[in-house]
Amino acid sequence: MLPPAPGKSTSAAAPSAGEFGRIDRYLKPLAAGFSGALGLTDDAAVFGIPAGHELVVTTDALVAGVHFLPDDPPADIAAKMLRVNLSDLAAMAAEPLAYSLVTSLPRDIGDDWLAAFATGLAEDQRAYGIHLLGGDSVSTPGPITLSVTAMGLVPTGRALRRGGAGPGDLVFVSGTIGDAALGLRVLQGTLTAEDPDPLIDRYRRPRPRLALVPVLRRFATAGLDVSDGLVADLAHLCDVSGRAAVIDASQVPLSASARAVVGKDPRLLSTVLTGGDDYEIVFTIRPTDRDALLATGAEVTAIGRLEPDGVPGTVTVLDASGAPLKLEAAGWTHFQAGPA
Amino acid sequence: MLPPAPGKSTSAAAPSAGEFGRIDRYLKPLAAGFSGALGLTDDAAVFGIPAGHELVVTTDALVAGVHFLPDDPPADIAAKMLRVNLSDLAAMAAEPLAYSLVTSLPRDIGDDWLAAFATGLAEDQRAYGIHLLGGDSVSTPGPITLSVTAMGLVPTGRALRRGGAGPGDLVFVSGTIGDAALGLRVLQGTLTAEDPDPLIDRYRRPRPRLALVPVLRRFATAGLDVSDGLVADLAHLCDVSGRAAVIDASQVPLSASARAVVGKDPRLLSTVLTGGDDYEIVFTIRPTDRDALLATGAEVTAIGRLEPDGVPGTVTVLDASGAPLKLEAAGWTHFQAGPA
Question: Where would you find the membrane-spanning parts of this chain (chains A, B) (predicted)?
Fold first, then answer.
């Protein structure tokens, strides 16, 4: 007689029994709160969605040495991975439901790493009301590679899209911009800040703006989350909406830490506006909704407007004197700043 | 003014404009047939599911050098990746809907590779009626790493589970068993076969048994797909169902190629029964449904039964004389054959 094998794999190069045991021990409890995960005993998860709702599905992958630093604390890596996906759900005005997780881990990774990683996931599951629904755990001879497919719910027809912004719409952004990009430069040793911890924390722990979902559903005509950089992401919105935007650099909300850094070296304003990893929401509203939006007390700031004309898909950034600002997009391989 | 950036990423280490262009060129057309993908213009896909149905969600990852050979043809890698997921949907008696794809690719991978990979995906999308819904494309300093989260639909409450098999239920398996495991050994150079191509093809191109879904919904009391090996996967079913199984090795269906190989070296029967990568469905039915099942003409074979007693989660394999067979589980790191 043969005992049951302790897990599931796609090939003979499966993790060892010990590795399966570890994965079971650390990851299975994360699925306990979602009945559709079937306790991870089956080939797939099975669940319905409430009547009158649509499913919102987003996927993001992170590679050690590319998207995070290999010696980042595992709980921070877990938080970043989950939160970049949750930010996409927030950007679509969806509420979190469940997520699938792929871990590709070197064979020699320690129990301590996996335990801390799972603890980070568990904390964020509680904080954001999402549960593990399944996934796959494989070993790799390469760097730690993680991906999440996150699912959320939105009332049918109410998902927030990038298209839909009209001429004259006002451009708003949530929270503060630039902290994460400056924090990354502090970690890389290319920037010294008097108060670096809040900047580093924003880089390591994005804050998905799920609390903004009711406000977005009520007011936003278009929106997305800021991952590539404020200017680039607003350009995405303009591109899909077929509009041009003008924003005032002096109106872009900065944290106290970022303001101190930019005050000492104004060239860093370019990093703030184009650096990315903000995971704030940039969105548009009709001008007539401005007062009602601000009356909600949501942490959002008006930074510009969509022009009645202008080249679709373009963003013009004005300095405090109203003159177009030239931006350096240093560090970006795919973002090419054109003539201002 | 700034032109729109050509894509989306999670960090400053984003693919270059050229890489985004390639991904757009090769992967975007794969989403054209699924309206919920929103043309891949937004942060997420958005779609409803039909009333009276549940969503079935499965995730599998493949790593070059671990789950496929690095110089395997890219279209075969695409087919394997999609089909292992489709096999999980078939095992749950679900029909394919859409999938999310993560590609982690070395920067120096050529256009030819990506084009052939996308062609393989497109062919399978047509063959199996599934579409790309979104995903992420990142670069990696490590091996090619791919993952798919596939979604399917099943009438509410009709998903096929691993639990649910009762005492006396008959054990059936679809198709033929062992071809892929023998094919892998041919590719690895540890086995010579007179007719190796069908074996290699089964290793490289799993055949998800989606055509069996109506039959499974009608008759199966429990089931799963055979990826870890027939004996190990049947043991999974027994474990979750709380039953013991006895199967007759001589009844396990072999292809002509596999029969020839095992005829020359009977020790390879162990490879056939435990080797894995079959992607057939092993399932149970009530004995009273046997004739009706066989009358459907489905390509399925009775190989054993669930015992009224016996240690739950165990599988006993009998040889042609009715004596318990000792199996070697060579090549498996997580499958431990106990005393027969």
Answer: none
